[in-house]
């Protein structure tokens, strides 16, 4: 059975192997800071329908098309959320649709990236998700909608790993290169654009190989203290930041070892 790997997992491993061990090897759940909200889900579904169900027989849809899509996905929200969402989508329309001469059909919306990668004799199954894939002249643009109230530009290191991993995945699925990753903040109208390059692909491959070796040898998952410790959910177990750390409960480690044995 292939070992499942996502950008979130690879980013955590790169940041701190010990935090990765607590989270994914012992299976200790960490509270999520940004759970998916009903409003965020409704906005994502609306935009998926907006692009997917438009007939593309006219150059541009009118504003009422995005409002019709919103109506279908917002009926469970309260009146003020419905108004807020409508305003967010109206702004989106004028910022990203009305300014174009023609609306181009995306390559895909709301999909999954799935690919297999082999490293150090281990099979990894890469999974990821995207909100939209657009064609560019020389490759693909991956678009991720963000419904946060504020712009929270991610760390460049995290972005590099995410792009590298998606690069590998999209290459297998579409036989085209990822050219850029764009984070589109729906509430503020900001769009952060990150160009993809072969260095990121190499970085992701190197991190996967390092992880593969560690999984095979089961050597120590050393802590990597830094600023990120402030938000770490595992501080009480961590000898690098706590003088008398608690012993973590044993979770799913034994099960994972069996999976690795089968895959070799
Ligand atoms: S507290 Fe810091 S060093 Fe310890 S596990 Fe968490 S991120 Fe790693």
Description:
This protein has 264 residues and is α/β, with parallel strands linked by helices. The protein is 43% helix and 19% strand. The chain is built from eight helices and six strands. Strands 1, 2, 3, 4, 5 and 6 form a six-stranded mixed beta sheet that branches. Strand 4 (139-146), helix 6 and strand 5 (178-185) form a beta-alpha-beta unit. Helix 1 (7-15) packs across helix 2 (17-25) and helix 3 (38-52) packs across helix 4 (63-73). It is globular. The termini are close together. Residues 257-264 have low confidence and may be disordered. Bound molecules: iron/sulfur cluster. Iron/sulfur cluster (SF4) binds at residues 16, 18-19, 223-225, 228-229, 232, 234-235, 238, 240-241.
Task: Summarize the helices and strands and which ones pair or pack.
Blueprint: E1 3-5, H1 7-15, H2 17-25, H3 38-52, H4 63-73, H5 79-97, E2 108-119, E3 122-136, E4 139-146, H6 156-174, E5 178-185, E6 191-195, H7 198-217, H8 253-263
Parallel strand pairs: 1-3, 4-5
Antiparallel strand pairs: 2-3, 3-4, 5-6
Structural class given helices, strands, pairing? alpha/beta
What distance separates the N and C termini? 9 Å
Query: How many individual β-strands?
Result: 6
Instruction: Write the H/E string, N to C.
Output: EHHHHHEEEHEEHH
Globally, the shape reads: globular
- Gyration radius, rounded: 21 Å
Mean pLDDT, to the nearest integer, reads 88
Q: Biggest sheet, open or closed, and with what strands and sense?
A: 6 strands, mixed
Tally of individual helices: 8
Q: Segments where pLDDT lies below 50 for 5+ residues?
A: 257-264
Small ligands present:
iron/sulfur cluster
Strand residues, percent: 15-25%
The helical percent reads 40-55%
């Amino acid at each position: 059975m292939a070992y499942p790997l996502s950008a979130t997992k690879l980013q955590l491993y790169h940041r701190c192997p010990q935090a990765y061990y607590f989270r994914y090897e012992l299976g200790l759940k960490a509270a999520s800071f940004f759970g998916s909200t009903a409003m965020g889900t409704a906005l994502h579904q609306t935009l998926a329908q907006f692009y997917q169900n438009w007939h593309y027989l006219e150059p541009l849809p009118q504003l009422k098309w995005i409002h019709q899509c919103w109506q279908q996905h917002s009926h469970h929200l309260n009146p003020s959320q419905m108004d807020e969402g409508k305003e967010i989508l109206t702004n989106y329309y004028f910022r990203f649709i009305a300014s174009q001469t023609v609306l181009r059909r995306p390559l895909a919306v709301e999909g999954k990236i799935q690919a297999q990668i082999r490293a150090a004799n281990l099979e990894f199954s890469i999974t990821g998700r995207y909100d939209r894939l657009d064609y560019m002249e020389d490759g693909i643009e991956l678009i991720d909608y963000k419904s946060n109230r504020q712009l929270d530009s991610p760390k460049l290191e995290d972005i590099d790993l995410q792009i590298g991993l998606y690069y590998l995945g999209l290459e297998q699925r579409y036989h085209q290169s990822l050219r850029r990753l764009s984070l589109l903040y729906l509430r503020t109208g900001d769009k952060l654009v990150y160009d993809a390059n072969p260095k990121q692909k190499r970085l992701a491959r190197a991190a996967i190989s390092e992880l593969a070796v560690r999984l095979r040898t089961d050597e120590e998952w050393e802590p990597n203290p830094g600023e990120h410790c402030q938000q770490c959910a595992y501080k009480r177990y961590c000898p690098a930041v706590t003088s008398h750390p608690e012993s973590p409960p044993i979770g799913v480690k034994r099960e994972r070892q069996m999976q690795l044995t089968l895959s070799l």
